[in-house]
């Protein structure tokens, strides 16, 4: 089954460019488009895309609020990939904090766009970990988020779960973590699932953001 994608951007040329790149792949299908975040929820409910590629800045409802709305109201929500002009942007970090699974630059090369959609759909690796680390260093309170610290303490991760979270923050995939820890991939998947459940995170991106904001992992 192909990865299905909904494109949300107020610039028709951006949508057309993304559609052309993605639909050139046999394993990706663009199932719909929208010009504003306000149209996302009904389209997500109707089309059930695997991934929403969504502009972070739009006139009526921006990508941050649209992300929150989708995650709050849609059962089994899609993965959300925010699309942005600027990499080091507080809007991008706020979108990740709101629940987005990753971000993509509008100037990205076609191969990078395709890779980002596939990676976010699979959910087994962190997209652009170095950039997430830089955003956390710039906007993530330097580990001073009290709520995040309390949540991390309450999670009471085991030693192995803590190792897995640190490796997740470095961007390692499940297979790479398995190789590093000399365990099976299924064992790693079990640890990742446990980490997410204990932290109340919907995916590894949210778990990594929590790790940075709590000071559990230093973003520097």
Q: What features would you describe in this structure?
A:
The chain is α/β, with parallel strands linked by helices and 220 residues long. The chain is 54% helix and 13% strand. It folds into two domains: 3-126, Response regulator (Rossmann fold), CATH 3.40.50; 132-214, Rossmann fold, CATH 3.40.50. It has helices at 12-23, 40-47, 63-73, 90-98, 110-122, 129-139, 146-155, 159-169, 174-181, 185-199, 204-213; strands at residues 3-8, 28-34, 51-55, 79-84, 102-105. Strands 2-1-3-4-5 form a five-stranded parallel β-sheet, with helices on both faces. Helix 4 links the parallel strand 4 (79-84) and strand 5 (102-105). Helix 3 (63-73) packs parallel to helix 4 (90-98) and helix 8 crosses helix 11 (204-213). It is globular and about 50 Å long. 42% of the residues are buried. The model has no long low-confidence stretch (mean pLDDT 92).
Biggest sheet: strand arrangement: 2-1-3-4-5
Q: Any idea what the radius of gyration is?
A: 17 Å
SSE order, one letter for each helix or strand? EHEHEHEHEHHHHHHH
Count of runs of 4 or more consecutive helical residues: 11
Count of structural domains? 2
Spans of at least 5 consecutive residues with low confidence:
none
Which CATH architecture of the largest domain?
Answer: 3-Layer(aba) Sandwich
Task: Give the rounded overall mean pLDDT.
Answer: 92
CATH topology of the largest domain: Rossmann fold
Main β-sheet, in a few words? 5 strands, parallel
GO molecular function: DNA binding
Protein name: Response regulator transcription factor
Keywords: DNA-binding, Phosphoprotein, Transcription, Transcription regulation
Modified residues (4-aspartylphosphate): 55
């Amino acid at each position: 089954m192909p990865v299905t994608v909904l494109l949300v951007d107020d610039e028709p040329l951006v949508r057309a460019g993304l559609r052309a790149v993605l639909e050139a792949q046999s394993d990706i299908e663009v199932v719909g488009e929208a010009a504003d975040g306000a149209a996302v929820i009904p389209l997500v409910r109707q089309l059930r895309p695997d991934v929403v590629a969504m502009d972070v800045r739009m006139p009526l409802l921006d990508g941050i609020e649209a992300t929150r709305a989708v995650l709050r109201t849609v059962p089994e929500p899609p993965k959300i990939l925010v699309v942005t002009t600027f990499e080091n942007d507080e809007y991008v970090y706020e979108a990740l904090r709101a629940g987005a699974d990753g971000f993509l630059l509008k100037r990205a090369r076609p191969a990078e766009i395709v890779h980002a959609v596939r990676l976010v759909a699979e959910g087994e690796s962190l997209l652009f970990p170095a950039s997430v680390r830089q955003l956390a260093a710039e906007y993530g309170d330097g580990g001073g988020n009290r709520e995040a610290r309390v949540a991390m303490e309450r999670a009471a991760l085991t030693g192995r779960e803590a190792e897995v979270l640190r490796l997740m923050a470095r961007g390692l995939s499940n297979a790479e973590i398995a190789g590093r820890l000399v365990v099976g991939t299924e064992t790693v998947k079990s640890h990742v699932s446990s980490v997410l459940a204990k932290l109340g995170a919907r995916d590894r991106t949210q778990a990594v953001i929590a790790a940075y904001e709590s000071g559990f992992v230093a973003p520097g």
